[in-house]
Amino acid sequence: MAPHLAREHLLTALLESTEDAVLSATRDGTIETWSAAAEHLYGYTAKEMIGQPLSRLLPLYESPQIEQVLARSNDHSHAVELGERLHKNGFRILVAVRRNVIRGHDGEAKGILEIARALDPHEAFWMPQEAPLSVLVEQFPGLVWATDRNLKIFKVWGAGLISLRIHPGKLVGQSVCEFLGSADVHTTPIAEHHEALRGVASIFEYSWKNSILEIRVGPLRSASGEIIGCLGTAVNITSRKRSEESAFHQARHDALTGLANYREFMDRLECEIRRAERSLHTFSLLLLDLDELKRINDLQGHLAGNRALKRLAAVMNEHCRSTDLAARYGGDEFAVVLIDADRGMAENVAQRIERRLRSESEKPPLSVSIGICVYPEDGRTSGELIEAADRHLYRCKKNQKQRIVTAG
User: Fold this and answer.
1) Model-level pTM?
2) Are the beta carbons of 258 and 249 closer than 8 angstroms?
């Protein structure tokens, strides 16, 4: 874009409306100019936005509209359109937008000039020309509500929270406290509504009626910019959270035994070391090796070997506290982090695991070799602790009569 053309258009726009946010962008969508009002409306400074893509401000569905404006080479319309823009803080702003194509001396489109002003959200929904936006909001898969400064709900949109039997029509006239079942102004979700009355937008999750809602709350402003209430949305994300938790669990646990995997084990071990450093307490680490697993696989097949691994995992879980961590460290190697456990407690747990395996009647009979180390006596880092326990485990494997070897 020719710089002098951009400056001419920008100057004209600023003279026409000193309160509107004005920006210009090249044909490929790179922002070239950014007015002070744009900084006020969107939260970004000119330094942050010049040279950045215009798409940074746009919801995904807005991008094709920009392409259409540039494609209309003969369109000199100054029609105002409604749209949404993304504020630096993450919330969306309803805006009235006028766009003009910037042209060079040859008449070719060089870029775009956009002039926008914020709309009062509740005012926008009642404007006849904005019927398409109203239809979209009514189909929103959740709830959108507007409150006054006393947090009394005066308008609700959206399809509702059907699974929770919350319908939009029943909320008008209620306070947010009644709606969300909380009256404490210092805790979620009421605290966030009071923050919105001070101009702060927030996004948070709220456990409610055995479900998880994702709630967004921001200030509701009048046309003059005065905060007159709150604007909030709620979507039921229970299924998504359960899927995320399931995926996270699968990523951190061994599929065969259900124990923590190597990644989870190492992360928890590092966390426990940091906690022990702060509180000056001790903990113990067991490394376990299932004896003769290769022989079981060779003679009876890998299904029998898998059953043997699962049997050991079950015994480990049986003799570990809920605060401890049992993990499958490798193919036939396992580990247990025993929280707040000294050497005597660790030896006791190891002996119980070994005796429990010996007492099983299921075939083939299983035995396990166990190495024990204690923080900080045997090491202060994860590497030192694992090396110490592994060294004791190797001595145990060599001495088949002594299944458990500790430091000392």
Assistant:
1) 0.50
2) no
